[in-house]
Give the backbone structure.
Amino acid sequence: MFVHPALALVTLLTAQPPAPTQLELKDGDRIIWIGNTLVEREQRYGYWETALHAAFPNRQFTLRNLGWSGDTVFGDARAGFDTPARGFERLVSLTLELKPTVIFVSYGTNESFEGEKGVPKFEKGLEKLLDALKPANARVILFSPGRVIEEEALAGNPDPKLRNGDLGLYGYAVQKVALTRGLLFVELNEVFRQTSVLHSPSTPAKYQSLTENGVHLTAVGYEVSAWSLLRHLGVQPPSFITPGIDRELSAKLDPLRKAIIEKNQLFFYRWRPQNETYLFGFRKHEQGKNAKEVAEFDPLVAKAEEEIERLRKSLK
């Protein structure tokens, strides 16, 4: 018999020890963010990562974005020319290789296309992923899927109300796992909802779309959702990060954001070289001798981190 996730959560809330209610960062933390398109695209704009630095100006930490568009908890998109099992192995091994102390986990959007019947499979897959990441002994933060911003949904796409219903079911599943394991949970559904309310199209002359299609955030979407994201992480946003496009991130944060984008690009080239198949895959017999050059991005990433650290100190 199917039990609605909301009812299951009521039982969990009374049966489990309280989960953390806010993100806490320590000096030297290494944050690894794994997930799907939402995560991968954030590295292009850097607003969420910048907001974290602004919220914790007295903490030195690094963040590595391992998002992969279209990915699932099963590592499907990372499989390449191999099996999903191999994609899952790559996801776990690279995450552990980076020795994280904090792991952000953001999945469920792509899995939700299977509807209600796919929830048990997704939940089992999420549990398997978290078990595989246990050797890191890291603090884990689980993010629900976001939601479709109905006002911006493209005609001809699946009904946004039905999609939000399915996304909500998968969000409940993530929350259930978080409660069972005592992990911090972030409801991105509410982050998106609050952002769309704050960023109202009631003033069309100033309105800029939050998404490209109701789903994928634009630069504006990442920027104006940063405030709500911090709030849902249990962190008080700095006074110069306020909601709405008319009061965007302070200009003093822009140099830091640009340095973060530069670091993200260099790291992306490091772990996802464009010609990966020729360097490491089944065609490495052709150009594999050049694979050693990929490691040359490491000092460039380190130098970019030094610039981020310099700019971070200016926020104090």
Remarks:
- Residues 253-316 form one domain.
- The chain is about 45% helix and 10% strand.
- Confidence is low (pLDDT under 50) at residues 282-291.
- Residues 270 and 298 are 7 Å apart (CA to CA).
